[in-house]
Design a protein that fits this description.
With 405 residues, the chain is α+β, with helices and mostly antiparallel strands. It is built from 17 helices and 14 strands.
């Protein structure tokens, strides 16, 4: 305890040096924390957009459907499968879908489209589909109409109240053909989705494809992505062959690769930042040891053990690092929480890029504890490594040379 008190007092014998070093760490921790918060906030929002927009956090389907996504590999939803999913506490809501392709026609115009049969109420709880209805109205239970994506509707010259012709192949090769009134026009943030999606009520879709009571997959949701690992673990215990469960990351490998690449770039930038912090701390320690060489020699000459001296120098270095780290974390809290509640709105090309990808043009921030404690841990490791230098010097310097310094 005496060693700690002496180390703390020694820091304030040269307040200017201590404050300058702590200030460099302070600003470094703030920049690193804010940058990490922005990264993880953006990742969380991208994941949330993707899963709530279409895929869900998890999907359950057959092993055959995983290999070949055809309507012949669909399945009937049983009570046992439903109960297995309902027994997982992390799952908040799930909805069935029947998805396949058909030709959509109006007058002399024809285009391929993705037909998705949904439960209107549950689908809206999962993906918020209702909010993308630009014209007309949302589907109702047992509705005989369809919702058409805006670019597809414009290509076919369709409007609310018009009739669309769908033609394709149904379950086990049965011909699928029908006339459906357009109930609403959907406008998604993603241009790609606007070109091909048609939604209809699930029973109407099953009847169209002659796939009575059959679905392609179940879309499952959890409160947020932090609950996903536990939900996956529980589901895999309950769901056996011929069924399987896949997470959003397995369904969207391209998105995972994009996030991993961006995370690697962020780690590189933070590595440079912490190298600057490390050299700043090391320069201070070098200067501290050099300036106090005579003092250290006197202390050893009058009887202080080198082991005790090394402990004092070690804790002096740690205190400088921890002082700057704690101050930096406290300083970053109001900044991060402000931008968490007030995301930065993007403009220009950046906003267009985000919109084209189907994401909202905002820079979001995260307040996850991981964002904060990793910075403190990193600074602690850096200062602990640098503190080895004065410990080494306390055992290696010559007392006679130190007294003459």
């Amino acid at each position: 305890m005496k060693n700690l008190i002496m180390a703390w007092r020694n820091l304030w014998r040269n307040k200017r040096r201590t404050l300058i070093t702590s200030a460099s760490i302070f600003f470094g921790v703030i920049f690193s924390t804010v940058m990490t918060s922005m990264q993880f906030g953006s990742y969380d929002k991208i994941i949330d957009n993707v899963v709530r927009f279409y895929t869900g956090y998890m999907q359950v389907f057959t092993e055959a459907y995983n290999e070949n996504k055809t309507i012949n590999n669909t399945f009937e939803l049983t009570d046992s499968l439903t109960k297995s999913i309902e027994d997982v506490p992390e799952i908040t809501v799930f909805t069935p879908r029947l998805e396949y392709f058909a030709l959509a026609s109006s007058l002399n115009l024809t285009k391929a489209a993705a037909i998705i049969g949904i439960n209107p109420k549950k689908e809206n709880e999962v993906t918020g589909l209702k909010k993308w209805v630009k014209k007309g109205r949302y589907l109702r239970e047992n509705d005989s109409g369809v919702l058409v994506a805006i670019d597809l509707a414009n290509y076919l010259n369709l409007n609310v109240g018009d009739t669309i012709v769908l033609y394709g192949q149904g379950y086990h090769g049965v011909m699928a053909a029908g006339l459906f009134p357009v109930r609403g026009i959907l406008k998604f943030p993603s241009p790609e989705l606007n070109k091909r999606f048609i939604y209809m009520d699930l029973p109407a879709c099953q009847n169209f494809f002659s796939a009575d009571n059959r679905i392609s997959y179940l879309v499952l949701m959890v409160k947020d992505h932090t609950y996903l690992p536990a939900a996956m673990r529980h589901l895999k215990k309950k769901i056996a062959s011929p069924f399987m469960v896949r997470s959003w990351a397995q369904l969207q490998p391209g998105l995972v690769s994009m996030i991993d690449a961006d995370r690697a770039g962020g780690l590189f930038m933070k590595a440079i930042l912490y190298m600057v912090i490390a050299f700043g701390i090391f320069a201070t320690v070098l200067m501290m040891v050099a300036e106090r060489k005579r003092e250290l020699g006197v202390m050893v000459a009058i009887g202080m053990q080198r082991a005790r001296l090394s402990v004092i120098l070690f804790f002096e270095t740690l205190f400088i690092g921890l002082l700057g780290a704690v101050a930096g974390l406290l300083g970053s809290l109001p900044i991060v929480f402000y931008y968490y509640h007030n995301p930065i709105m993007l403009s220009g090309d950046a906003a267009k890029t985000y919109a084209n990808m189907g994401f909202e043009p905002y820079m979001y921030f995260s307040v996850s504890p991981f964002v904060f404690y990793t910075q403190a841990l990193t600074v602690f490791i850096i200062t602990a490594v640098i503190a080895i230098y004065p410990v080494y010097q306390s055992f290696s310097f010559k007392v006679i040379k130190a007294l003459r310094a």
